[in-house]
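Question thread 4412

I'm putting together a teaching handout and wanted feedback from people who do this every day. The idea is simple: show students a protein as raw sequence, then show them the structure tokens that encode its fold, then repeat with a second protein so they can compare. Below is the first pair exactly as I plan to print it.
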Amino acid sequence: MPSRPYKDFVIYGCFVLNRLVAGLDIDLHQDRLEQKLDSILAERRTSLSKEEVKREIRSNHVMTNKVIEALVKDGLVGVAQEEGRYRISITRAGVLHIRKYNEFYRRIYQEQIRDHYRYRPAPFWLRE
């Protein structure tokens, strides 16, 4: 029986950060992104609910909470509570982190990423 590749906080965090960046609808490698980033984040205010994070990482609520806590601890996302619901939004540091490390994640976690997106289309950041 084939075993599924183990996925850890790092790759789950990568999935979440990339989903949030996709919501911003930006090119991570555009010129002068650092100068534009604060206004982009303020204008677009993209966020995900905890349920959307759970579906993105395709895991249970315990792992979802751990992934969110790890991302918050690293300053890559912020969590706001609105009307009893949590909204997770990417920070400036989160955008710059994923810009810097996406290619690294793609190489190191190739098997886990392929397994994760086996039954659905790959997101924009994985397309060649």
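The second pair follows. I'd like the answer to focus on this one:
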Amino acid sequence: MDLKQIRKQYEKKTIVEIEKDIKTSIESSLESRKDATLALYHLKTSGRFKENPLYKKSSFASYLEGVYNIREGSFNESVRAFLTFPKESVKYGVGLVSKIHRKCGSSKEKQVLKEIKEKEKSLKTPIKRGQIAKIITQHAKPAPPAKPAYKSLYENELRMHQGLKERYRDVSTELVAAKEQIEKLKKTIIGLRAIADAVNEYDGMREPVCA
């Protein structure tokens, strides 16, 4: 089919009809994706994927990626979305439902989806991504405090260690000076005692003067 044929197919339709066709096609593809995901989930939980001779001794992750080029993490997200919110996952897509789960937590998922639906009903035009994002943000879990980078931790530790080394050096210098001062005081005291003893000895040797 070339561009001319595509234009001929849609030229008699209004924009409303064309947009409706597009939405129906997208939802149909998501419905098909749901069916495929749940079929794969059956193969995983029953172990029947091993009936494929090429994957008889392989893990489900290997089978999933090898046959369908699907990563197990993405598959698990899809399974959870389609099992928990099948209608919403088909209507809004697995990506949005999974995003709500990550950002808001399982306890708020239902409420967030409900508010999105209510907002959509109140609008005359399709709901915009920014409006959905705003609702998600209102119910989002508080962000965890940012962890300091290991480099910053190391640099802070190094600065503290350097400061302690300098402080230890200063204290050591002060102790040496104090010891030297004490030794000087000791020598001074010994000298004073020697002078005092000499004076006492001299006084004792003096003869009393007769009247």
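Top answer:
Good format. For the second protein you could add a caption like this: Residues 203 and 209 are 13 Å apart (CA to CA). The radius of gyration is 43 Å.
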